[in-house]
Design brief:
391 residues, globular, D-amino Acid Aminotransferase, Chain A, domain 1, nucleotide-binding, ligase activity, 36% helix, eight-stranded antiparallel beta sheet, single chain, metal ion binding, ATP-binding, Rossmann fold
Length: 391
């Protein structure tokens, strides 16, 4: 089996996917813009071969890379990046090389928030009121219907980029003065806590792995207000969330892919759909999958692709949490104090790449506990701010 992996060196843990492809017996063929000699040894070792391009945004270069691999290894069986940024590029390459997976024609429903909203409604799942707005006048017309506050963002945006809460007409005017030159959607602001429905589906759309995460606040607030962030996996998925998540897998026809579906929990048993992403959750959440359940999700994914193995016996043994730190915030406890006090619970400490630091902080702690009380205690200790009083 020949599998092309786009950008195997970034995010930094994604070379594990390539490594497991090799272990499963596939050719793991990497395409990236980093010089081969600058790749970390673990990345180089994870690949059967690496093709360097000058610019990842030059589609002709990517075509030549895929053509080279086809000539040398035979028909390409899979093309993936597992990264939202390259979703359109990999779909286009699948079109051109007739490779199984999401094609360009499939993308509107999973890239455009206005189209997602239609699918959610088709599944009978509540959504925030809203639509694409064409002008300031059109936006004012919508606001007249749904009221402030509203959230404005690119219809096909990634993450919280250009996403703003607007509380009045002054905010609305300012947004249109600086809005990106793309279609934008405006929705009623939903007050609630973000819960995600995450996992990996097999070729028939059946979940191989499932979990859920609870977030301290949205990425929009984290980025725009310079806040630190925490989130954690649960040991039991709420029944309503599980039911709505499974409906989403069906209506979006999720097959042989990771998924990350975000909901607002607005009441005890009520969830409002926010968006779906056809990729693993961001940051180091794939590592959290592993720590929470004592599995290797990289191997699970690779064996699903290469061998069609869709059997995984797993248990959510731990709550697995992530807590970030921001350089602009003064914290009461030092890194050394955190390790001294909670070292037995901490699984990883990561320096966060600059491109992710707005959302995930400059430093991120991953930890696991059997009880939420211990998990929340760790989060509070990491995030406690202030200046220590000298004795």
């Amino acid at each position: 089996m020949n599998c092309i992996f786009i950008s195997p060196h970034f995010p930094p843990q994604y070379h594990h996917f390539c490594q497991q492809l090799k272990f499963a017996g596939a050719n793991a063929l990497g395409i990236g813009d980093a010089p081969y000699d600058e790749l970390k040894p673990a990345v180089r070792d994870s690949l059967t071969e690496y093709y360097r391009v000058n610019r990842m945004t030059d589609y002709e270069e990517l075509l030549r890379a895929c053509g080279y691999f086809t000539h040398k290894y035979g028909k390409i069986d899979r093309i993936d990046s597992l990264n939202e940024y390259w979703l359109s590029t990999e779909a286009r390459l699948r079109d051109d090389f007739n490779v199984y997976g999401l094609k360009t024609s499939d993308l509107p429903a999973v890239r455009h928030k206005s189209e997602m909203k239609k699918r959610f409604q088709e599944a009978g799942i509540p959504v925030a009121p809203g639509r694409v707005v064409e002008s300031l006048a059109d936006a004012r017309k919508l606001v007249k219907q749904i009221g402030y506050p509203v959230v404005a963002k690119p219809d096909a945006g990634v993450g919280a980029h250009h996403t703003y809460r607007l509380d009045n007409d002054k905010d609305l005017v300012r947004f249109f003065e600086r809005r990106p030159d793309v279609d934008c959607i405006m929705e009623g602001f939903v007050c609630g806590q973000i819960h995600s429905f995450d996992g990996l589906a097999d070729k028939n759309g059946k979940p191989v792995f499932l979990t859920s995460h609870v977030f301290s606040q949205g990425i929009m607030e984290t980025v725009n207000e310079g806040q630190h962030l925490s989130y954690y996996s649960v040991r039991r998925i709420p029944a309503v969330l599980h039911r709505q998540g499974m409906k989403c897998l069906e209506v979006f026809d999720v097959r042989e892919r990771f998924f990350h579906i975000e909901f607002f929990k607005t009441d005890k048993d009520e969830f409002t759909a926010l968006e779906i992403n056809m990729r693993p959750p961001g940051g180091f959440t794939t590592e959290m999958f592993n720590y929470a359940c004592d599995i290797d999700i990289y191997r699970v994914w690779a064996e699903l692709l290469v061998r069609g193995n869709n059997q995984l016996d797993f248990e959510r043994r731990y709550f697995c949490g992530y807590a970030s730190r921001k350089e602009n915030i003064r914290y009461l406890h030092s890194h050394e104090e955190i390790i001294e006090r909670y070292g037995a619970d901490i699984c990883q400490v990561n320096q966060i790449p600059v491109v992710f630091s707005g959302a995930l902080g400059e430093l991120g702690y991953i930890f696991r506990t059997e009880k939420t009380s211990r998990l929340q205690e760790i989060i509070r200790f990491i995030h406690q701010t202030g200046t220590r009083q000298e004795a």
